[in-house]
Amino acid sequence: MKFRSRRRKPGRVWPGFLFFAASVGAPLFAFAQVNATTDYLSRMDADRDGRVSLPEYQDWLSYAFDGMDRNRDDTLSPQEQPGGRGTPITRTEHRDRLAERFKRQDANRDGFLSAKELSAPPQ
């Protein structure tokens, strides 16, 4: 009678481990997201004054636009947009939309976003 080794081959992942990691890691990941508001503020706050100005907000949130604008012409053509449809969007239009969102988030109307305002649901 031969004994077969139960040793896993290198590079293979035990399926039970994946389930365990997902069930234990998911709540920890969610917890980290909730506590990351001040970290998010510090990343957006380029001048480190403890608040986010409109240009800082627009610059930070333009990463998606930059990633989709493959030909770097400052316009998202329908082919560059998700689903390959839509009307062209210029960088100026994109920044104008972000300015409107910023204005709605600025609850105290001081022209800056605090950590509390950043973490609040959109208005």
From TrEMBL:
Domain of life: Bacteria
Pfam families on file: EF-hand_5 (PF13202)
Keyword Amino-acid biosynthesis annotated: no
Keywords assigned: Signal
GO molecular function annotation: calcium ion binding
InterPro entries: EF-hand-dom_pair, EF_Hand_1_Ca_BS, EF_hand_dom
Region (Disordered): 70-123
Basic and acidic residues bias locations: 91-109
Signal peptide: 1-32
Presence of keyword Repeat: no
Residues in EF-hand domain copies: 93-123
Protein name: EF hand domain-containing protein
Species per Swiss-Prot/TrEMBL record: Luteimonas cucumeris
